[in-house]
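User: Reviewer 2 asked us to show a designed sequence for the structure in our supplementary figure. I'm pasting the structure tokens here. Could you produce the per-position amino acids so we can include them in the response letter?
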């Protein structure tokens, strides 16, 4: 019978989830510290490396900017508390339904492509850990 392995896979966090992002700051280091020798894979980093066309939310204090990835142009800007999206950001999405964050179909759920990116990353991680035989 084969051996069992334990690892922690953290789900990707959308840039449009300002409250969760605020909580997440420093959380990865705390989780890794608590996990000890248990390997941790943060899918937020994986998703950030696969940015394609689309937009992201950039925060600085209470200021929020809707930024187009391709040219870093600011499409909308406003202020809001950390648990809310600025009304200007929401308005931009209401005016242009084509705006979307790569790999997410809403403020937190991966698209089919996002799930494929996650699955490939997890498989690669498990191969690197020696938990899967090479194909």
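Assistant: Here is a per-position design you can include in the supplement:
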């Amino acid at each position: 019978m084969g051996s069992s392995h334990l690892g922690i896979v953290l789900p990707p966090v959308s840039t449009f989830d300002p409250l969760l992002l605020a909580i997440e700051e420093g959380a990865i280091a705390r989780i890794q510290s608590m996990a000890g020798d248990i390997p941790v894979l943060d899918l937020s980093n994986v998703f950030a490396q696969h940015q394609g066309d689309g937009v992201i939310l950039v925060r600085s204090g209470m200021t929020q900017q809707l930024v187009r990835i391709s040219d870093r142009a600011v499409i909308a800007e406003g202020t809001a508390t950390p648990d809310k999206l600025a009304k200007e950001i929401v308005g931009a999405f209401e005016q242009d339904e084509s705006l979307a964050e790569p790999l997410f179909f809403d403020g937190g759920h991966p698209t089919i492509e996002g799930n494929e990116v996650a699955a490939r990353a997890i498989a690669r991680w498990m191969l690197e850990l020696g938990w899967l035989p090479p194909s």
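For the response letter, you might also mention the following. The chain has two domains: 1-50+105-129, 52-102. Residues 112-128 form the longest helix (17 residues).
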